[in-house]
Amino acid sequence: MQIGSRIPRIRAAGTDGWEIVYRARALVAAGETVLNLTIGEPDRSTDPRVLEAMHQAALGGLTGYTFGPGLPELRRAIAARVTARTGVATRPENVIVTPGGQAALFAAHMVLLSKGDTGLYVTPHYPTYPTTILATGAQAEAVAAHAADGFQPTAAAILRAQARTGARSLLINTPNNPTGVVYAPETVAGIAGACREADLWLISDEVYDTQVWEGHHQSPRALPGMAERTVVIGSMSKSHAMTGSRLGWLVAPEEVVEAATVLATNTTYGVVPYIQKGALAALDLGAAFEEEIAAPFRRRRALVQQVVAGSRSVSTAPAAGAMYVMLDIRATGLSGEDFARRLIEEERIAVMPGESFGAAAAGHLRIALTLPDDQLATALTRLVAFAEALVPA
User: 20-24, 65-69, 235-239, 256-260: which has the minimum mean pLDDT?
Assistant: First the structure.
């Protein structure tokens, strides 16, 4: 007996860099100390007030099935948040609650693409982007954003890829994981223009929208002619330190939300209702709470810049947002993969190789700003010293 073709097709998409994560875990299990900069998870637990709201909701009986696109009060709160943050009038009917941002990404592509279609995605990219597209039966095609351009994608590159493939959709992410780059207003305008010209659906992953250190986050949905062709992915994971709660959302035209609701009925049956109540309590804490969650990453990004300043071997991408910094280590002569393997074996520091986020990030490393400041400073100081020793005097 053989399994179907979908999972082998996903596996064939290549490495995602998790071998470094697994190696780090194995070393820790063996009693070793590892400074782990791999996983983008806030280093604080979910707020007790949010947990208490979940607890009381569960005790109150909200433990049964959840049908449809989510609790009405949570959809209203998400719509109000999106309206306030982007200036685009958003109704509850434009929102479906999903089991995390990844489920929203999958739902968007399942709704918008058919077997044999092509979905574009900007690279460097989060590893599940191409595999999510492939899981729908569509083809996945990368549009490279290059280090020389500050990892800002261009409209010309998008239009070339669409003309070559006949693609129906484009997936972007700003603030960006893995680079930490925030797309400039002219970049977002160019993307929007390319989508209008080529008649593309735009799927905009905005889960890091509260983590902007320079400039501002521009949602392409706010630009002229874009609300009717844009699907926005949101999540409580990064903005409210609720990674394990698995609560995200999709904001889109009503027909997309209706189709995603049909998909949910046949896959997840929605999101646990008491967790939805916890998300509602978290949103009620307001923008000041979101800034409190983001503050350590703002501080640690500045710390990284201070440690790297003046290095011959390591430089930073223009990290203006998100909880990551991309380090350029090409001066060492090593690939990101080789550097990361040697770093964990020789220094017991775990980082993600740039190649795990696509060829456009070759010769780079992604570090997550998720260790306490003193440990992060130690890890970065040792990483830079390790890199310096590789560069001829």
Answer: 65-69
What is the value of pTM for the model shown? 0.95
Radius of gyration over every alpha carbon of the chain, rounded to an integer in angstroms: 21
How many residues would you count in the chain? 393
Structural tokens at position 358: 């696509």
Q: How far apart are CA 324 and CA 297, in angstroms?
A: 8
Domains, the chain, ranges and CATH?
Answer: 6-45+288-388 (3.90.1150.10), 62-285 (3.40.640.10)
Strands 349-350 and 35-36, how do they pair? parallel
CA-CA distance, 140 to 62, in Å (whole number)? Answer: 39
Which run of H or E residues covers position 140? strand 139-144
Alpha-carbon distance of 365 to 363, in angstroms, equals 7
What are the angstrom distances between the C-alpha of 216 and each of 208, 224, 232?
A: 12, 18, 17
Token couple for 319: 């990290």
Contact 91, 79 (CB under 8 A): yes
Task: Provide the phi-psi class of 336: left if phi over 0, else alpha when psi is between -120 and 50, else beta.
Answer: alpha
Lowest mean pLDDT of 9-23, 174-188, 203-217, 352-366, name the range.
9-23
Taking 70 as the threshold, does the pLDDT of residue 17 lie above it? no
Question: H or E element: which one contains 195?
Answer: helix 185-198
Judging by beta carbons within 10 Å of its beta carbon (0-12, 13-18, 19+), is residue 235 exposed, middle or buried? buried
* Residues facing residue 321 across a β-bridge: 212
- Residue that is written with structure tokens 């609560």 in the block: 247
Tokens 């905005």 — which residue?
206
- Cα–Cα distance, 159 to 266 (Å, whole number): 35
The answer to whether residues 222 and 87 touch, using CB atoms and an 8 Å cutoff, is yes
Residues 356, 13 contacting (CB under 8 angstroms)? no
